Amino acid sequence: MSEKSYRVAILGGGSFGTAIANIVADNGHDVHLWLRSEERADEINQRHVNETYLPGIQLNPSLKATTDLAEAVQSAEVVFMAVPSKSCREVSRTLAGLLSKDCILISTTKGIEADGFKLMSQVIHEEIPYARLGVMSGPNLAKELAERQITATVIASQDTNVTETIQGLLQCSYFRVYAGEDIFGLELCGALKNVYAICSGIAAAIGVGSNTQSVLITRSLAEMCRFAVKKGADPMTFMGLGGVGDLFVTCTSPLSRNYRVGYSLGQGKDLDAVVEELGQVAEGVNTLKLLYAQAEELDVHMPLVRGLYGIIYNGQSLDEVVSTMMSADQTRDVDFSLR
Ligand SMILES: NC(=O)C1=CN([C@@H]2O[C@H](COP(=O)(O)OP(=O)(O)OC[C@H]3O[C@@H](n4cnc5c(N)ncnc54)[C@H](OP(=O)(O)O)[C@@H]3O)[C@@H](O)[C@H]2O)C=CC1
Ligand SMILES: O=C(CO)COP(=O)(O)O
């Protein structure tokens, strides 16, 4: 754990931003959480809870919430971005004039910008070219983190000072932080796995067996790797916590919002109603459309993406999609070899 006390800002007071802010505050740093709702800021400052996003969790009393972005990032040495992907550019643009030159900026957002299929580090770099960037991703369900259950994450950056600083800042008795350099691959893992969590949720709702679940998760990983290689990412990154680790948790836990969307779809509910009822972001819904379009454009074989897209947007039945997959040409198990 870091001996130095850092001035840290977390942007986004939803479930993940609040969970990260709480860890950093528990580790003794000076933490400011920026959010939009005055009411929620008061609730965090006075009662030390965020009942909307983390009900039942008592937050560290030293955690300060504010609706003033300039105040939140003033003198900040480290900033975590934890807003949904659709707001990342807007928030980055505002932040650009406020952030000091040597501040470390970590993206935790697991989504993709529609225009140009950009990952969040690319969006942030366009808006704040001088930012010392890193990406954090892994099996990190916000509720379990806030409950201080053991987990680990990955921090990727080209700058070892960034990775070492964040490792020191976040590491504690229940949270390990592994380092990496492959920002693009790690971010791609975090965004893609959400789509497969929707597939797994559907499968769970219709009551598939354990063999089927296993096949689904493994072939999801195969698709993700195939796509990643086509986009120039290192497939080995997908073997780590940000890949297999996050895919596994999101495809198996009812705490995952994407899994829950899938589960409700599997029960025959309407997508718009499900998203509305969720009240939190499920990035996979948007990522599915973008991924489907990219797979078609780049000619990447992604039967699960195509099948899910067919069910949600083209009115195909689940039986039809499953039958097409099961009768497809026999192919290889593992596409890549290190030899
Ligand atoms: N929850 C989790 O377990 C994990 C989430 N992530 C990723 O973190 C990102 C954020 O997710 P999460 O916190 O879960 O989402 P939530 O839906 O729980 O919360 C989203 C938060 O972002 C705020 N927000 C939305 N738009 C803006 C904006 N334009 N300006 C300021 N604040 C805004 C919302 O504010 P308001 O309440 O005012 O609408 C809300 O506080 C996602 O990309 C997600 O994939 C990553 C790891 C784990
Ligand atoms: O990314 C997550 C866990 O690592 C959270 O997944 P959901 O966004 O599906 O809740």
Give a description of the structure.
- The chain has 339 residues and is of the alpha/beta class.
- It has 2 domains: 175 residues, 3-Layer(aba) Sandwich (Rossmann fold); 139 residues, N-(1-d-carboxylethyl)-l-norvaline Dehydrogenase, domain 2 (Orthogonal Bundle).
- It is built from 15 helices and 10 strands.
- It has an 8-stranded mixed beta sheet, sandwiched between helices. A two-stranded antiparallel ribbon has the order 6-7.
- Strand 4, helix 4 and strand 5 form a beta-alpha-beta unit.
- Helix 14 runs antiparallel to helix 15.
- The longest helix is centred in the middle third of the chain and has 23 residues.
- The radius of gyration is 20 Å and the shape is globular.
- The protein binds NADPH dihydro-nicotinamide-adenine-dinucleotide phosphate and 1,3-dihydroxyacetonephosphate.
- The site of NADPH dihydro-nicotinamide-adenine-dinucleotide phosphate (NDP) has 27 residues, from helix 1 and helix 4.
Low-confidence stretches: none
SSE pattern, N- to C-terminal:
EHEHEHEHEEEHEHEHEHHHHHHHH
State the helical fraction. 40-55%
Secondary-structure arrangement, i.e. CATH architecture of the largest domain: 3-Layer(aba) Sandwich
> How many domain units?
2
How many extended strands? 10
CATH domain fold name of the largest domain: Rossmann fold
CATH class division of the largest domain: Alpha Beta
Question: In one word, what is the shape?
Answer: globular
What is the radius of gyration? 20 Å
What structural class is derived from the secondary structure elements?
Answer: alpha/beta
Q: What fraction strand?
A: 5-15%
Mean pLDDT: 96
